[in-house]
Amino acid sequence: MKNGFVVSFFLLLGLIYFSFYSLMPQTISSLTTPEVEFSTERALIPLKEISKAPHYVGTAENKRVREFLIQSLKDLGLSPETQQGYVLNERRGRMNQPVNIIAKIKGTETGKTLLVFSHYDSALTPSFGTSDAGSGVVAILESIRAYQASGKQPKNDIIILFTDAEEVGLVGAKLFVRSHRWAKNIGLALNFEARGSGGPSSMIVETNQGNRNLIKGFMEANPEFPVASSLLYSVYKMLPNDTDSTILREEGDIDGLFFAFIDDHFDYHTAGDNFERMDRNSLEHQGSYLMPLLHYFADADLEQVKSDEDYVYTNFPILKMIAYPFSWVMPSIFVAVLLFGGLLFFGFRKEKLKLIYIVKGSVPFLFAVLGALFVGFFGWTILLKIYPHYQEILHGFTYNGHTYIAFFVSLSLGIAWFMYAKFQKEVTTANLFVTPLLVWLLINILLAIYLKGAAYFILPFYCALVSFGLLLKQKQVNPLIHLVLAIPAVVLFSPLIQTFPVGLGLKTIVISTVFTVLLFGLLLSFMSGYTFKKRLAQSFTLLALIFFVQAHLTSDFNEDRKKPNSLMYFQDLDAQQAYWLTYDAILDDWTQSYLGTEPKTAASVITSAAKSKYNSGYTFAAEAPTKVIPHYQSTVIQDTLVGDQRTVTFKLIPEKKSNVLRLYVDQELTFTSLAYNGVAVEKNLSYTESNNRLLTFYVYGMDALEVSYTISKELNPSFTLLEYSFDLMDNPWVEMKARTPNMMPKPFVFNDALVVKQKITPHRNALE
Predict the structure, then answer these.
(1) Could you give the angle at the alpha carbon of 99 between the alpha carbons of 95 and 104, nearest 5°?
(2) What's the count of helices (H) and strands (E) in the chain, helices before strands?
(3) What architecture is domain 26-316?
(4) Cβ partners under 8 Å of residue 539, min gap 6
(5) Which residue(s) pair with 673 in the sheet?
(6) Strand pairing of 660-665 and 198-206?
(7) For 501-553, what is each residue's pLDDT tens digit?
(8) Any idea where the domains of the chain sit in the sequence?
């Protein structure tokens, strides 16, 4: 039996490895792959062309990529068209003019349409957009090519959509769903995305109704490597991150499935999102989804997609997917409570369980949970004190983030093994198992009430109850039998331990540490029999130390792990002053060469700080030489009085290419009417001192901005214009030094920008 425990330990390690290995393809398809099948190597050819340079909305590179994609669709025998128009987001005060690319494969029937789509713009400003979302674009191109090669004609029309301006507010999707003639008949939308540069791609459901038919269709399409769980969707709905699929669901009631890989999160929206760093297996995974889904839904009855019923679902090795109705959730909890209560009654009656031993047996488990909670909660805060430069990585997942996950998990396991080596003593496995089972039962009850998407957690609990019953019935049970019963817990929960800090940042590492100990508790049916607990405690503690040393040795920045930094040249035309500005908390040699070693705090110099996605404002400022930089000029087109109302129209005309305009009103007031380039504001007409930004306008080409408003004739408002052009590093007016090879522009903020601030006084211009 002793050998059985040793074997079970190594089999457990193999099972954990398999739980990750089985999530995605481990090889990619080559150029010799049959024409009717998806080939990653074929898809890489257009991907390399798309991701030659950053191609964010409104740029020349954005136009080049658009023209390339239009030609690629023509090469597939399609007749692509473009859709262009202004879209105003009143809630966020944003407007721009995206250019979508749309094509259609005609079906043989007249039912609902299948939409496959991604976005072709890259993030502002440093990203090459290879993974996000060039990978989605080429997955669609290659899958459509393979589908066409099969000679099949679909029953349903298939629309191919590449949206623009996704990265600045999901604008292309809004333009499509609000005004394109094909948007009204879509039955299902398949969206391909990325939030990192590697890892398995997860499927997420977007629907306003129940998900039953979507999940059943997904399962019937039978993709080879499904990674999907109702828990991930439940968590996704709680986060502030939306996709184009969200817009289709909210504004068009279009059901959808979207697929995104999120690992190597440190590359998200950075210069690291490039052709060389993207995981080829992740692209293979996207193709392994789209091909079977394309063949299935091209001929499916898309009238039947909507449902009033929700399913709990999760992927599972070999079985691929497990799904059942939400209506089963509470009955399954009720049955679990009865079974657990019955087993407790049986155990006490047979004197296999004693309260004193259950209490003693709870000590190591509860201490291990508290230890993991302490390590996870305070550990990352302590590391930020030791390595303050990690603060420069705004999304919170460092280059050595996986090593830190391994460190925290190993340390949590070391604590757990230490507790059981010290406190288990004469307590039998059955008595030890009671408290973890009780905790897991409480967790499942709470999930059933508040987070039904995670209700599949009850499945490993049922298996644990079988183990508990065997422990109560027999004196000795082969540990390998208990290991088999623990398979659902290991394969379902092990990947989740990594997923949360990867997707949400290392600040959530406490989820991983506590989850590790909770999973440990479910495996006590055989692990409590290990006679080498002390050695395991020492081994995992040593392993944690090794991972910490490895993380320390890779904690610095270099050419492969580039330091994100930021710099802006800010010029106030009215004050005739200029400043260097940064978002960085810690200045490096390059930023110090502009800001100096003792810069002023930004708040002491400038008040109009543009907040980032992660609420980072300008940190430091220093005086800069003033330069003559071409900028937008304002001219009044109309200034008329009708009764007690004054109507003014002024136009901002560019003298050079800029990327973003931000317009503020300089006093508290309420407009009677307000419009930008003929697009009327319908709701947000009142502005205060703290809420005075009228508009963020993402410039398309050499766009002018026309502002029209009606107010009381007693009011003479002035406006402040901030003009951003992301060409600081190669502009002809301000001489710049190149970054060193171990640096890159910081993402999620307006960066490497020339910023020109000026006051606009249209009423004064009119009088003059």
Answers:
(1) 135
(2) 21, 28
(3) 3-Layer(aba) Sandwich (3.40)
(4) 414
(5) 710
(6) unpaired
(7) 998 899 999 999 999 999 999 999 999 989 899 999 999 999 999 999 999 99
(8) 2-18+330-553, 26-316, 562-768
